Amino acid sequence: MTLIGVVLLEVLVAFEQIAVATAMPTAAKELDGLAIYPVVFAVPLATAVLAMVIAGPWADAIGPRVVVMTGVGLFVGGLLIAGSAQSMTMLIIGRSVQSVGGGFDSVALYVLIAMAFPETLRPKIFMSISAAWVAPSLFGPPLAGYLATNVSWRWVFWIGASLAIPALVLLLPAMRRLPDVVREQEPAVRVRRRLVAAGAAALGSVALSVAADRPMLPAVVLAIGGLVLLVVSVPKLVPPGTIRGQRGMPSIIATRALLGAAFLGTDIYLPLMLTRQHGMGATEAGVVLTVGALSWSLGAWIAGRRSTYADQRRLARTGLVLLTIGISVALSAAWPTTPSWVLYGAWLVGGGGIGLAYSPLTVLLMGMSAPDEQGRNASSLQTAEMLTTSVLLAVSAIVFGGLTPHSHVAAFVSGLVLAILAALLGVVVSHRLEPVTPARAAKEAYVVAGDQ
Coiled-coil segments, which residues (predicted)? Predict the structure, then answer.
């Protein structure tokens, strides 16, 4: 029951992130808010970053129970506000509250899993969470599109709100069994510094998101300002050495950030590439995303069957190599003369690559985290991935927009080259995933039940 609750809650968070993009144009038109359309996405991104940074130390200090319950309450409340919005401002407020709840839950669920399940089961549990994003990516956009066109865009929000409470009910028995956690609180000065850094990072991510929709000169100014804020703030939100990909915990976080950014930095361009360069319709072009999602699911299933920490490291490295190969082959489809089936095959490989690598990195992170650091490290992992992806997408969008009037081929190539560079850097950093201390290496020597 606990696993069902975890997966259902993760599915809802994923659905609301993916499906909203489909329904939002209809909502913005009805609420007369097209002029501030980018803000509907930028502000919730910022509040999600703040929520993740807060949730980690909070879960470490008192355990995940209260954080999860608070997150679900805010998630449901935000969805109800957004679904009932009578103005664009109200919609933005609802989306922001929803994102705070989702940020709390995404971090606290990792801590809940670490406390409720033994290390022997974590590969399968985190595999289930990874696979939970497949169904929303397959069915979320068409369902949201149907609701927005034939019923009301408001139901895209209300459906999530109606299912979140049952998910919490399924989690309650496991949360009641968790031991009470009372740990020493962080010094107030350190908390304030982290919140200031999170605010700067959130502002930087908003600047990058808004920059992607502006003319070239304002876009460059906003992008530079956003990057400066991120360069200054991000090192304060992740373990020391993460930016350099230092061996151990920092390299796990850096690898996951690069993995997620490389995948999404490619995924967003593939349907557009098929429609513009190969003349396909939207439905036919969207099949490439289905191929990638199903392949991700298969890769995650394979990863869940491998159990030692050494296996998890090998899977992460193999997955990154496959993702790099998939993106590199997909690049050839920027030319109209390339057969379209090449792109489908490339994303079959790329999707399988991220499926193999994604959950093993989470298993490695939680296994290497001390009990009083699980929340903070989970927060660092997810914050780093979100911000890295924001940077890559914003820079890619600016370059893509600048090149599109001159050459569609050059525009698509530029977008995918950035993703390839991120994936290649991830391959390099993934060779530093081994633990630093001999004590940790000795702890990993056991073989998880079922592996032999």
Answer: none
